[in-house]
Amino acid sequence: MRHVTQILLSVLLVLACTAREVRHPNVLLITLDTFRADRIGANTPNLLRLARSGMWFRQADCAVPLTLPSHATMLTGLLPLHHGLRNNGIGSLPPKTETLATVFAGVGYRTGAFVSSFVLDRRFGLSRGFETYDDAIARDPNDTAATFDAERRGGETVDRALAWLQRSDGRPWFGWVHLYDAHAPYAPPPPFPQSYDGEVAYVDAQVGRVLEAIDREKTIIVVAGDHGESLGEHDELTHGLLLYESTLHVPLIIAGPEIKPNEVLQPVSTVEVAPRIAALGGVPFGQHDEGLYAESEYAKSLGWSGLASIRSGDTKLIRGATSEMFDLRNDPGETKNIINDQRRLYGQLAKQLDAIAKTAVASTGIVDAETRAKLASLGYIAPAGAKGSGRDPREMAPLFRRYDQAQAKNDIADLEKLITADPANPVFRSTLARAYKLHGSIDRAIALYREAVALAPADPDAWYNLAAALEEGGRAAEAKQVAAEAVRLDPARPDSHNILGIAQIEGGDPAAAEAEFRKAIDLDPRNARGWNNLGNVLRITGRIEEAESAYRKALEISPAYADALNGVGVLAVQQGRAREAIVQFDAALRVKPDFYEAQLNRAIALQLSGDISAARTELLRLVTQLPKGNAQRKAAETLLERLPRAR
What we know:
Layout lengths: L1 H18 L6 E7 L12 H9 L1 E3 L2 E2 L5 H10 L3 H4 L16 H7 L3 E5 L17 E3 L19 H13 L6 E7 L16 H18 L5 E7 L19 H4 E2 L1 E4 L6 E3 L3 E2 L3 H9 L11 E4 L10 E6 L2 E5 L3 E5 L15 H15 L11 H10 L14 H17 L2 H10 L4 H13 L3 H14 L4 H13 L3 H14 L4 H13 L3 H14 L4 H13 L3 H14 L4 H13 L3 H14 L4 H13 L3 H14 L5 H12 L5
Parallel strand pairs: 1-6, 1-7, 2-10, 3-11, 4-5, 4-6
Antiparallel strand pairs: 2-9, 3-8, 7-9, 12-13, 13-14, 14-15
Helix pairs in contact: 1-9, 6-7, 12-13, 13-14, 14-15, 15-16, 16-17, 16-18, 17-18, 18-19, 18-20, 19-20, 20-21, 20-22, 21-22, 22-23, 22-24, 23-24, 24-25, 24-26, 25-26
């Protein structure tokens, strides 16, 4: 390891010296999400030309095959177990952690970031140091699922980056452009093929647009992948679960003034990206990690073991519940375990993994006393015989492949088979619950979500999912308790505050609800659901102008948000503007045709506008559509009885 590190540092010093030819160079970092290193070639002409013009690192590996922790590593020079972000959607970068953006901003650089996925939203802490952090990605405000899948096409991200580049103020700049398109599902815009390689070609086209827009004589360019994609290798369809080279091996290219073309065959890690970029820009960078360590904690969320790997030259050890070691020079596909042939080297690498593990700053998955008490008070019990398996994810990969296929279709029958095969798996159980919820079986969904909470009581996602289902099922009292626990476990999650606020409204405490909605908005100013909920509570408490402002803000963020359109319509009715209200209700119903509350409100507006016949037709439609006992059907029946009789 020491020999490798010395080689890497010597390369870094050479690069730093050549960069001094350009005083205060601009620095461009392009990160390619889910991009296999072996895809640089004829299908990616822009990336291939760039690679041949600069330093092309042919054996670069990422430190973790997940988007958020991998980008945190590239921006900080720290391994995931040192910066603390070890999974997508969990936690935030510690506020005192130095990043590329903070060091460049500190020496007077203009800084801007343009990301393409909600998984890199500013709430996770990567925005510090950036004057501009463009994460304005459209999200479905009606989707309460615990996912971070919202994305935008690379073309839109590049449009915004190019506009920023054109607004030069004379300062040197550090820009980061993140392209997410190669992530599943593989559906690039025409004329690109609807495949992974089609997405790769589309990403290359966007890289070309950025490269054409900059002054190459004054700019250091770094292109790095955050992780690869298995595409079925080792029984993994995508990435995140395993630590084989199909997901660790990534592109890494450095080009710029005076950097000579060179193919670097020495293994390197993306943990080196931040100190390399800082050195090229001539700015000091603090303490950072070195070495070829990688990890994935993702499998722990499934009740399995995590994985860690370390590499020395061509030899790589992967350790979980079991261990395996490979000679990557002679076995690049990692098919032959050589541990029994290399026991001494295995022992050395295992000791290095032990030493690294002891330096971890962030522990995960701890169930504290308060959570245990909450489980007991609510009576949540894990399914009979379900104990955390701790099994190795390499052994479970075929089962996870079945899961990937079943959850994509919300296939209840297949998901039921999966929880039979692995009854202690909280993710499988939550996904089955979601499928039942989508199919209208809310009671079954709630029962499964309760079991998932019992299986993974330290997981804020599990509590949030249950709270959302309880709220949808009209169980406000339990939803309030569960949402409060979700907030306690992860107070930085805006939607947990949203769910808690809704439960408080239904519990008759609008002041407490307003406080929760404002917390959600403070955490995420682009949270359309939070603004809409705030509008609702302001309307309930009679602050009409403030309510309309909140609804309008929700619609500014998400113009096709049916609930906010309905809210604006209700305010118009209350202010005697029935005709204007009908326009808003019509807009809401175009977005969401089965929005029965908006249909009911539209009938009221029609009546108030004097169109009794149309109001009667709308109410009769509601009575026909809705089951007996439904609250909105009862309201429609009451309004029908009160309508003036036709003459």
